[in-house]
Design goal:
mainly alpha, Tetracycline Repressor, domain 2, about 0% strand
Length: about 325
Amino acid sequence: MSVIEDHTPYEEVRISSAMPGDYFALLKPRVMSLVVFTALVGLLVAPGSIDPVLGAVSILCIAIGAGASGALNMWYDADIDAIMSRTASRPIPSGKITRQEALGFGLFLSAFSVITFGLAINWFAAFLLAFTIFYYAVVYSMWLKRATPQNIVIGGAAGAFPPMIGWAAVTGSVSLESVVLFAIIFIWTPPHFWALALFKAEDYKRAAIPMMPNVAGEASTKKQILAYSLVVAPLGVSPWMLGFASIAYGVIAAAFGVAFVWFAYRVFKMDEADRKMLPAKKLFGFSILYLFVLYASLMVEALLPKVTALLGMV
């Protein structure tokens, strides 16, 4: 019987048989990799400089904080994870780790990452990290996810904070540029996840999660995907328009923005009788590439002068 369904006294006190890989899975490593990547870009693009060792400590703290959020999310969502096909093999529903172990692990990592960040880097960035963990674990996971079809819209802020945290690690503050980095991910999140929700609607229905396709219907969801895509495309170009990215970045962002809108339009025109939902799957896949290309371009532009200077010194 699943550990979710049977919370006997023996279950509560048993010696854990979990392997290190099971705890690593609790951290949601794929999500963590995106967090680390966008936070690194925020750190590199920020004005000023940071000691490489302190920069590495910053990224490590952000990664641990992201992992803590994932563990707390899995602790709270273990009941619905057991129902959904794409999450049933996670450590808790598969019986490898108990909910109590996941909760303790998540709370320990949360405290460790925030305190270390504050002591080693600065307390403003540490506060942003703490707020992000709270927002994802409490505001999104415990409240929004099961309460409203706007869950991913409002809750998407949690995934948008990392570049702002990276920026704050260097500057000790936030600015318009860091807000733009936040906004790109924030507006990108709904079309990205609603594309997934279209072809995973049955999973969300079984788990009673009010995702947009299940509440508002496919037609409304497709319209909203297109609407958000029409906003994220020009927003992706804004770093060039605001002067903290080059025209080369602007051209790349514009081209990928047009492609993003095209994929979203294909979803909008998708036949509701098409159960394979290939346009939605293609948009979901392309949206990941879109965000990676934009942030990778910003990272290359931030690193290029430093690499050139180092080569000039050789």
